[in-house]
Amino acid sequence: MALKPWYKVVTPREDLRLGKPLDASEFAVHLDKVRDESAAEDYRNPEKFFERTYLTSNLASMAAEVVRRLSGEKTETSAVFNLNTQFGGGKTHALTLLYHLAKNGPRAGSWPGANKILAKSGVQGIPEAVTAVFVGTEFDSIKGRGGDDGTPLRKTPWGEIAFQLGGENAFATVADHDRLMRAPAGDVIRQILPKDRSCLILMDELMNYVSRNRKTDLPSQLYNFIQNLSETVRGEERTVLVVSVPASATEMNPEDHSDYDRLKKLLDRLSKPVILSTETEISEIIRRRLFEVDSKSLDLNGKIILPDEARAVCEEYARWVLAHRQQIPSWFPVDNAKAAFEAAYPFHPMVFSVFERKWQTLPRFQRTRGVLRLLALWLSKAYNDGYRGAHSDPIIGLGTAPLDDRFFRAAALEQLGEERLDTPITTDICGADDSHSIRLDTEAVDSIRKARLHQKVATSIFFESNGGRTSGTDATIPEVRLDVAEPGLDIGNVETVLSALEATCYYLRADGSRYHFSLKVGLPKLIADRRAGISQPRIKERIMAEISQVFAKGPDLDRVFFPQKSNDIPDRASLTLIVLPPDRSMQDREAVLRSIESMTAEHGTSGRTFKTALIWSVAENYSQLDHVARDLLALEEIRDEELKLQLDDSQKRQLKDNLRKSERDLREAVWRTYRYVVLLGREKVEIIDLGLVHSSAASSMVDLIISKLKRDDLVADSASPGFLVRNWPPAFKEWSTKSVRDAFFASPIFPRLSNPNSIKETIARGVSGGVLGYVGKIGDEYDPFRYKEGISAAEVEISEEMFIITGETAKNYIRDHSDPPVLTSIEISPRTVQLKPGDAQSFVARGFDQRSHDYPLDQVAWTATGGVIGAAGSFQAGDGEGRFTVTASSKGVSSTAAIAIAADGDIRVIDEGGDDGSIKTVSWKGEVPPQKWMNIYSKVLSGFAREGGLKLTLNVEISSEMGIPKEKIEEMKVALRELGLNDDVTI
What we know:
Number of helices: 38
CATH architecture of the largest domain: 3-Layer(aba) Sandwich
Shape: elongated
CATH class of the largest domain: Alpha Beta
Strand order of the largest sheet: 2-3-4-1-5
Strand content: 5-15%
Helix content: 40-55%
Number of domains: 6
C-alpha cells in the first residue's frame, strides 16, 4: 500500500510551518529577471544588493575598469571582459553588480562599496550607461521575444541587444539579420551603438544557448557576432562588453568542448580574462518542542501516541530492516525495529543515533540545544518542500537533511566547528545546481533517480563521518544502508551509488568500505584540474597511438594508418586496410567520401590499378575519443606526480584502478567509434555500418571487419575454379596467372581475396579436377601442359609467362595432338598478282597440318594457265590477256592463286577464289570515325568471328591541340593491362 507522507500525519508548530526560524532566503537569480525587475528584492533593489555584496579584490578591480572605460578613459582599462569562473565563482553576481552601476550612474555613488570602486577607477563619478542584457538560459530563438506586446519580434541575440540599446529604431537596423538569423558585421553593429552615451552590454550563460541550438547554424552565427561585436567595441569610446563563459571542463558534456574551445580562443584573443572566486528521550523532547501536541494524544507516561498511519509506516520500515538484518549494523535493535522507528517518528531513528554515536564528542556540539536548532530548521524546510510537491517521504531520513539550505548548513557547520566544509557540501552533495550528487541522480536510472539516492547516500556519509572533522570517524557501508533504508529500496543500489560518488566527488575519500569527506581535494578534483590543461595535440597523439595499437592486431594483411595523400597507400594486388584519422569522421560525411573516392581512383599522379584492394575504416565522430583520452592523460599526469602530490594509500589505489579503467575505456572507445567500413562497389563507394560493437565482439578489430565483409561476400578466403571459368575474359584463350590474381583486386565484380596466394590453391584444384589447365607457351605449343593431374599450390607460378586455360581448351589441345600430322592445306604466296604479257613471277607453296602447324612439302606439282610454270614455281606470262590461275598440288591437296594479265594494266578486279569459286581471304583497310567504332564489329565483323579465322590488327592515333594529360595516358595503359594487352604506347 502507499505510505502516507509524514507531513500529512503529524503537524509541526506554526512558526516552523511559516518558516519563521529561517533568515531571509536567497534565491538563484537570472540577470534577465534583474533587468525586468522580477527578481527577489535582495537582487532587484540595488542598495540592498550592494549591502549584501562583498567586493573581492578582483571584482572591485573589474568594476573600476568598467567604470573608467564608461567614463571615456582608455588607458589602463579594457573594452571587452571575459569572466572565467571556477566552481561557485559568482559570475551572475558580478554581472548584476555592473548592471546596477551602469543603470543608476551617479545615484550609485552612495551605495556601500561604491567609494572603493571609484577610488580604484580614478574618475570623479560613476557614469550612467545604456545597458543591454543577454542571458543564454532565458532567450529562446524558436519562440523569440516580443511580437505580442507591442514590440518587434526578436529571435537572435543581436536583435535583442539592438532593441535594448535603441528600441525599434536600432532593431530596424538589424531586422533583416534577425529574420535571416545571420550575424551583423561591424558596420551594422556600429550603427546600433549609442552615439552620445555610454554603453554596457552583458552576455551570460552562452554555453547553454550554444548547447540548446547546436543542431542549427545559430552557434556559428553567435560566434561571428561576438567576434564582430568585440572588434567593434574595442574601437569605440565609452562602450564595454562583458561576456561570461564557464572555465571548468566539468560544467560541460563532451559535445560542448569543441564549441567552448572555439569561443574561448576568440575571447582570449579579443578580451581581458577575469577570474572571480569565493571563498529514547531525545525523541520526546523534540516532539514536544517541534510539533503540535494534543493532550488527548498522550499516554499515561506522557508520551505521544502515534496515529495509525504513522504506526503503519513504522511497521513497513521495520519489515525492510528485518529482511536485511545481515547487511545493516549489528548494534541496531533489529528485533525491536518497529519500536525504534515509532520512538523516532517522523524522523528515522538513525537521525538521532548519529548525533549520539558520532557528534557528541565534538568540542562545539550542543547535545540538546544544538540538535533542536538543527532539527527545527530541517523540519521547517522539509514541511514546506513537502507541501510544495518536491518530495513525499514517509519518514524524514538522515539522507534528506537539507544541506542545500544555507541556514541549515551554517547551523550544521557551526556544530562541527568547521565552516570550510561548505565547499565540499555544495560541490559534492547539494547546495548548487551542479553539485555532483544532484547531477548523478539526474543521470541515473529511474529507481535511483526517483529515490534521490546519490544525494541521500552522500548526505548520510557527511553526517556519519562528522564531515570528516574527527580522524577515524568514517561512514561504513552497513551504516549507510540503514541510513537510507526505506520500503522498496533495492539494497544493491547503495553499492552502485557509492562507486559513482567515489569516482566523481572532489572531497569524498574512500578507504576500502569506509568513507568520509575531507577539506583536501581528492582524486576526482585533481583529474578535473588536469583535464582542463591537457593540450589538443597531446590528446590527438594519444588517440592515434591507441588506434594504431587496436588495429595492429588480427589477420596478416597490409595496413595504412592515417594517410594524407593517395600515394601514401600502395597500389598492389593485396588486401589493404586504411584507417582514416578520427578527425576525418562521418560527421563530415560528404567531404570524407569525396576524399576516399579520390584516393581510391588515384595513386599519386597516376591512376590506381588495384582499386578494390582498399578497405577503409572510418570513425563515427571524434568527441568521445577526445573525452576519454583527456581523462587518461590527466590520470597519467597525476601518476607521474604521485610523490609531489603526496597521495595517500587509498588515493594511490584509486588512481591505479582509475588508470586501468580509463585505459580500457579508451580502447573500447576506439571500437565503438570506428563503426564504418567504406569500399568500392560495382558503381560507387559503399558504406557498411558495423553497428554498436565492443572488444568482446571479436578477437581484434580487423577480425571483426573482415568477418563482416566475408558474411556480405565482399571478401573471400579463396575462389572456386568454376568461378574463374564463369568470369573468363572473352578476349583471352590463355589467361596469365598474374592477371588472374590481379583481377581479384582490380575489378568490383570479383570478391577480394583475404590472401592473394590462395589463387594458387584455386588453380591447383582446378587442374586436378579437370576444370582448368595450367600451361606455359612456346610459340603455338603449350609447354609445360598440366591438366587432370595432381599439382600442388607451391608448383603454381604467378607470372605473365604462365597461364591457365579452360578445361574445354585443354581437351581440344589434347585431341589435336593425339593424331600424327597430316597435310590438310596448302597456301600459295602471293595469292593474287597482276602482270603484263611476258612478265615473270615466282610463287611459293607452304603446307599446313590439321592443327594449322607447318607441314613440310617434299614434292609440289605446279600447273598454270595463261603462261608456263616450272617445277620450282617460276611462272612466265604468255601473250594473251585475261584472268588465269596457278595451282600447287601435293599428296592430293591443292591450292590456287589468281593471275591477271593485261597489257595496259586496266584489269582491277581480281577473283581470289579457288577452282570451286570460294573466297579464301578478304581484307579491308580504312579510317573509321570514332562514333562508328562500336558498329564496325557488330555490323561488319561479328559474322566472321563466330566462324573463326578473324584476325584484327588495330592502329590508333590520338591527337589534341590542347595536349593530352599524362593522367589520361596512364589510364589508357592501365586499361590495356587489365585486358591482357601490351601497354606499349608511343608518345
